[in-house]
Amino acid sequence: MSRPKNDVFLRALLREPTPYTPVWIMRQAGRYLAEYNQTRARAGSFLDLCKNPDFATEVTLQPLARFPLDAAILFSDILTIPDAMGLGLYFAEGEGPRFHHPLRDERDIRKLIAPDPATQLRYVLDAVTQIRKALAGTIPLLGFSGSPFTLACYMIEGRGGSDFHETRKMLYERPELMHHLLEVNARAVTDYLNAQIEAGVQAVMIFDTWGGMLAGEAFHEFSLRYVERVCAGLRREREGQPRAEACGWRASRNAEPMRWGSTGPSISDRRAPESVIASRYRAISTRPCCWRRLKSYAGRRPRYWPATDTEVATFSISATAFPSSPRPRT
């Protein structure tokens, strides 16, 4: 099959020259859209919204009707995998995701198995198929997953945004048990992303949201190592299109997270100094591809690259910010 009519985003991932900096939004479908809030009300809850392919398709397409974006991103959640493992995902009002059955007992961890995406995550794959059909070859569709370590944090703590006490305790007191959990998660993420690719996504991302809690060698041992394992297991081609592995913004605060950018384009922390990003990426490649997540009031091209340079191929930006690179209007 041919590339989408607007293939600028895919060309950027392949490090090919692009006429402008392609744009997509991290939370492309979300509460800033009135129509999203209406659809979510009809769905009944955020989780019901994710698990209904018709609703997921609808909200994925909503921002595309408003903005000239260069990619669609699958509407889902990174915690679909542990939910499929039986941990019982739910969302507490004003408190974010929770699990009814967090992993605190070794027996529970040892009996975990990677879910079968074709059955236990069928609703996600059906949404991918429907979205690709609705896009009708106009722009590419992105899929995603949480990293093995980020998923483990949620699974152990039973929630997000905590001090990670239980996770740190397991990591330092029972590292072999933590590695077992990460191995299961790595298999699950690999299978899940490959299933998304087979269903039709044209690029995939890995969000290592909580990798930033680890420092130095711990980051490489418990986070980076398993992201690299997932990347090695991904199908390299789907319809001749690229796939991308992306480092989440929290992980990029570590000493050398950009080193693994050689496996694919990376997202860098909006808080990381530009000089640090420049030196790290130039150490990786003479033509790196960086997805820079920016603050809403700082949607601009980094100082160290001229506006006409395509080395910084694509940016992930907030809803109110657009890059300074010129962009044609239709």
Write the layout of secondary structure elements.
Blueprint: H1 8-13, E1 23-25, H2 34-43, H3 46-51, H4 53-66, E2 72-73, H5 80-84, E3 89-92, E4 96-99, H6 106-110, H7 117-120, H8 122-135, E5 141-146, H9 148-157, H10 165-173, H11 175-199, E6 203-207, H12 216-233, E7 266-268, H13 274-284, E8 290-293, E9 314-317
Parallel strand pairs: 1-9, 2-5, 5-6, 7-8, 8-9
Antiparallel strand pairs: 3-4
Helix pairs in contact: 2-4, 4-8, 9-11, 10-11, 11-12
Main features:
330 residues, alpha/beta, 4-stranded parallel sheet, disordered C terminus
What integer value in Å does the Rg equal?
A: 19 Å
Spell out the helices and strands N to C.
HEHHHEHEEHHHEHHHEHEHEE
* Helical coverage, percent range: 40-55%
Number of DSSP strand runs: 9
Assess the beta-strand content as a share of residues.
5-15%
Apparent shape: globular
Residue stretches low in confidence (pLDDT < 50, at least 5 long) are 245-252, 254-263, 294-330
Give the class from helix and strand content and strand pairing: alpha/beta
Mean pLDDT across the residues is 78
Verbal overview:
The protein is α/β, with parallel strands linked by helices and 330 residues long. Helix content is 42%, strand content 11%. The protein contains 13 helices and 9 strands. The protein has helices at 8-13, 34-43, 46-51, 53-66, 80-84, 106-110, 117-120, 122-135, 148-157, 165-173, 175-199, 216-233, 274-284, and strands spanning 23-25, 72-73, 89-92, 96-99, 141-146, 203-207, 266-268, 290-293, 314-317. The strands form 3 sheets. Strands 1-9-8-7 form a 4-stranded parallel β-sheet. The protein has a 3-stranded parallel β-sheet with strand order 2-5-6. Helix 13 links the parallel strand 7 and strand 8. The radius of gyration is 19 Å and the shape is globular. The relative contact order is 0.14.
